[in-house]
Amino acid sequence: MKLLVVSDPHWAGPAELPRRGYEARAMPHRIQRILAAAWRKGFWLADPMAHNDKLDRILALNPDPDLVVANGDYSVDSAFVGISDDAACDSAHRCLNALRAAYGDRLLPVIGDHELGKHSLFGGVGGPRWESWLRLESRLSIPAWWQRDIGRHRLIAVPSTLVALPAFESELLPEEAPFWRAERQRVLSEIRAALTALEADRRIILFCHDPSALPFLAELPEVRDRLPQWESTIIGHLHSPAIARLATLLAGMPILRGLGSSVKRYSTALHRARAWKEFRVRLCPSPTGAQALKDGGWITAEWDPESPAPIPWQHHRLPW
């Protein structure tokens, strides 16, 4: 069995491309724009709209996997409201079309946070939109969650934003909050039932785009009961292995309040990040990684599905 995992392609379609500079326009204060520009140009990614070719290269380098998991974040989300924005929805659709053209029904897509929307950095613009959730199935053919048995392993994918919904409460539209809460209860009930019915000899591989959801999963008794069966959790969201290492070092840090909802959400996630260890977290980087390090790429695993040996994961770096 050969499994390919790609994450965070952030494809920029023709309707999003004219929005270059979208982050700065969402920031009301000049000092915020200066700091964000320094972060992007000095380390993160100077132009998030200039890297569609990276996913094309990964597809060309991986022509024949048996199974492919796309671990979320298919558009740039330049309006910060997920795929309820038509331009972001078109970008995500084009990105998934490229994956499906390459792999057909071997592709299993996972929901990322940018499919649903979230507050912009510093600016506090946007947030999850219920229309984005409704469009996942109807426009992008992405299920709320899924599971697949491969030999001795159970692959499970969860919607990280929905699982971690309490951390996004301040970003929800008040009139939409009841729908989100009810949907969270429904999806978590299905996942809990699936774990309750899971055979004791199966090993679990979880796909969870944003690791902020893991402490919320750890609160579920059905998850805690199955942790001895957990082999690995594949996350995305952090883009760079360097950021993943930094997050591990900052696990348990204090929550930062008064600097905007995004900073509070990130610091809350890091405050609770000690729970990640129990899930045996492994990052699938974005194709680009951090621009300063160019440490992006993809991950693969090749193994005998009937073997009791742990799955050997391999990180592949994509030069650019």
What's the number of domains?
A: 1
How many H/I helices? Answer: 13
What structural class do helix, strand and pairing data support?
Answer: alpha/beta
SSE order in H/E notation? EHHHEHEHHEEHHHEHHEHHEEE
Strand order of the largest sheet: 3-2-1-9-10
Oligomer: single chain
In one word, what is the shape?
globular
Q: Give the terminus-to-terminus CA distance.
A: 29 Å
Poorly predicted ranges: none
Radius of gyration: 19 Å
Q: What is the average of the pLDDT values?
A: 94
User: Approximately how much beta-strand content do the residues carry?
Assistant: 15-25%
Largest sheet: 5 strands, mixed
Number of strands: 10
Helix content: 25-40%
Commentary on this structure:
- By secondary structure, the protein is α/β, with parallel strands linked by helices.
- It has one domain.
- It is built from 13 helices and ten strands.
- The strands form two sheets. The chain has a five-stranded mixed β-sheet with strand order 3-2-1-9-10. Strands 4-5-6-7-8 form a five-stranded mixed β-sheet.
- It is globular.
Structure, briefly:
The protein is α/β, with parallel strands linked by helices and 320 residues long. Helices cover 37% and strands 15% of the residues. The chain is built from 13 helices and ten strands.
SSE layout and pairing:
Layout: E1 2-6, H1 22-25, H2 30-42, H3 52-61, E2 67-70, H4 86-103, E3 107-109, H5 113-116, H6 130-140, E4 146-150, E5 153-158, H7 160-163, H8 165-168, H9 177-196, E6 203-208, H10 214-218, H11 221-226, E7 230-235, H12 241-249, H13 261-271, E8 281-283, E9 297-302, E10 313-317
Parallel strand pairs: 1-2, 2-3, 5-6, 6-7, 7-8
Antiparallel strand pairs: 1-9, 4-5, 9-10
